[in-house]
């Protein structure tokens, strides 16, 4: 009897391992597919700023004494370099996703601390735009990856700053409900046209190309935020958006919550 119990336990453990491995392989192949598409797009998107930087450098080479040209060139080269920088940052965030395909263990993450850390990093930008920050933060523990969770927050909060109105407000709240930690990020910005609410999560989608360019956006922030939340068993939803502002909600599995 003892022997057959051992065999049965071993078989069960093997079956569990097989199930985990199948899941990991599925995740990896989905990631692989996404990455290939993404890299194709990124290469294309890199060319636009590089072309304009090169064009200005060529012009300066031809007209080295043209001060007005110099001024425009510095402005454009500056903003296009900013765009390139942001894209490189986002490509790195995408490659960070790969590690989660095989990693099942998750850390106990103190949510409030991570939010405060990200807000601190954005403080400069928040003051520059004359925005007010309101937060209602409660102690909460998520079962998540700290770096990945940080990427989710950085992207959502960065948008709450970028797309806000001058003198606007950013509100951050969090809590725990039904085995999930939730974080809500609200802004008093320009809003997203209702019919585009799903599209904005697609990589490289921007509502207004010109405005996105001014802000240095490549349309990757929301796609990355959602993917990073999903690999951790969470989600990013657009809860409400209109001309008075936008509200996003992140959910992550709560630490020690009974699994459903
Ligand atoms: P980007 O890098 O352009 O900000 P995102 O993927 O983060 O890319 O967002 C996609 C588009 O969704 C943005 O170009 C912007 O038009 C819109 N958007 C995202 N967040 C907000 C927000 N909080 N308020 C208004 N519009 C937003």
UniProtKB/TrEMBL annotation:
It is an enzyme of class 2 (transferase). Its main location: membrane. One of its GO terms (molecular function) is ATP binding. It comes from the Bacteria. The keyword Transferase applies. It is a multi-pass membrane protein. Its EC number is 2.7.13.3. Residues 41-256 form the Histidine kinase domain. Keywords: ATP-binding, Cell membrane, Kinase, Membrane, Nucleotide-binding, Phosphoprotein, Transferase, Transmembrane, Transmembrane helix, Two-component regulatory system. One of its GO terms (cellular component) is plasma membrane. It is found in: Cell membrane. It catalyses: ATP + protein L-histidine = ADP + protein N-phospho-L-histidine. The keyword Cytoplasm does not apply. This is histidine kinase.
